């Protein structure tokens, strides 16, 4: 993000903080509880996510030709490789023999040998070896291979489509946000691994926890609220995506400093909501990524939490410090946000009350739900047998 834009956002944040207010949506909004509990809605959500481009990681997770990583996306195991030409490829991580996962984790390897019966694939997905060849006369070594999925790197992130026949156009998907996301460089920072939350909450409830800072003073009283303001957000939407600026308490000190001396990024957290299921959180010291997926039933979801850092991790104490920051952020989401909304999911499922209320001071919440409703409107209803 260029300095002029950052200064402009900081000016808006300082004004909101000074006036003890926040960007406001035009009206309150009521949302029906069944959006979080019904099987029909769940199936439509799953179809929506399956049809959307999926941001699955940082480009720095494939740092050189011959590297690979594996991801679980909507319950599917996906293998990503960087081939000798530098291109990113993705495949269903499913062996052609008996559907074992061919590889787990990440690392460097130009060929992958299935751990079950040792069928071997190269990093372009081609089957290159079948032990006990006479057992499989119909298998065509060299022309058979792992099912390839559309994949690309864009704006510093790795993207895949789960439908092998889909076209992946991330430039159109991100629209005007593409350049801004790329400019942070967080996708090129050093990755710190993945932490997974398998939680008894609807996936949208998980997303909702990242969509407002109205709850900071209560839920994060002992943690984030010590450094960040509550109920004070600069909100901007970009088509189906949006950006929130959460000012830190220190932002008020800028009132006494001339603008040309501002170091704006020291005083805010920038949150991006990327349609339909991605949250990015950017600070001076780290780039957090939350990939949030529906679980097997409406009341369950999987959140994969990643973090990257601009710090030099070759220094052991720096690396330990970066991990500690990641652990702290993860524990806060797990023990404060997700723990609290578990009770909320239980109430929604009890059927005791039909509606939730989204305030004018929660424009991010309203925007997320409007984007989903918009996408679902045109979508075909899944057929139920
Ligand atoms: S399942 Fe992969 S070799 Fe048998
Ligand atoms: Fe929170």
Automatic annotation (TrEMBL):
One Pfam family cited in the UniProt record for this chain: Rieske
Residue span(s) of domain Rieske: 53-160
Keyword list, A-Z: 2Fe-2S, Iron, Iron-sulfur, Metal-binding, Oxidoreductase
One Gene Ontology molecular-function label: 2 iron, 2 sulfur cluster binding
Cofactor section: Fe cation
Protein name (Swiss-Prot/TrEMBL): (2Fe-2S)-binding protein
Species annotation: Mycobacterium fragae
Lineage, uppermost ranks: Bacteria, Bacillati, Actinomycetota, Actinomycetes, Mycobacteriales
């Amino acid at each position: 993000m260029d300095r002029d834009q950052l200064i402009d956002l900081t000016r808006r944040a300082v004004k909101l903080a000074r006036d003890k207010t926040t960007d406001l949506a035009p009206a309150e909004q009521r949302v029906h509880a069944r959006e979080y509990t019904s099987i029909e809605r769940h199936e439509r959500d799953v179809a929506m996510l399956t049809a959307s481009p999926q941001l699955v990681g940082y480009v720095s997770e494939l740092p050189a030709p011959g590297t690979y990583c594996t991801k679980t996306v909507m319950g599917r195991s996906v293998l990503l490789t960087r081939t000798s030409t530098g291109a990113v490829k993705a495949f269903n991580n499913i062996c052609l023999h008996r559907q074992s996962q061919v590889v787990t984790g990440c690392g460097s390897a130009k060929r992958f040998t299935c751990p079950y019966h040792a069928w071997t694939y190269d990093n372009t997905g081609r089957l290159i070896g079948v032990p006990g060849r006479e057992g499989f006369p119909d298998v065509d070594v060299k022309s058979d291979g792992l099912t390839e999925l559309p994949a690309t790197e864009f704006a510093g992130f790795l993207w895949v489509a789960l439908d092998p026949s889909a076209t992946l156009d991330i430039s159109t998907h991100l629209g005007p946000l593409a350049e801004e996301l790329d400019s942070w460089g967080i996708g090129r920072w050093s990755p710190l691994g993945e932490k997974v939350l398998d939680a008894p909450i609807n996936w949208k409830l998980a997303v909702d926890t990242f969509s407002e800072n109205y709850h900071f003073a209560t839920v994060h009283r002992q943690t984030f609220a010590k450094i960040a303001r509550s109920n004070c957000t600069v909100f901007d939407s970009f088509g189906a995506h949006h950006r929130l600026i959460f000012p830190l308490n220190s932002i008020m000190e800028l009132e006494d400093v001339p603008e040309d001396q501002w170091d704006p990024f020291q005083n805010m957290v920038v949150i991006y909501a990327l349609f339909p299921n991605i949250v990015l959180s950017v600070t001076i010291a780290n780039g957090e990524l939350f990939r949030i997926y529906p679980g097997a039933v409406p009341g369950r979801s999987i959140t994969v939490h990643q973090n990257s850092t601009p710090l030099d991790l070759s220094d052991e104490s720096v690396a330990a410090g970066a991990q500690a920051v990641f652990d702290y952020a993860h524990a806060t989401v797990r023990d404060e946000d997700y723990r609290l909304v578990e009770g909320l999911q239980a109430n929604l499922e009890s059927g005791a009350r039909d509606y939730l209320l989204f305030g004018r001071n929660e424009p991010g919440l309203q925007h997320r739900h409007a984007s989903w409703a918009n996408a679902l409107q045109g979508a075909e209803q899944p057929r139920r047998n």
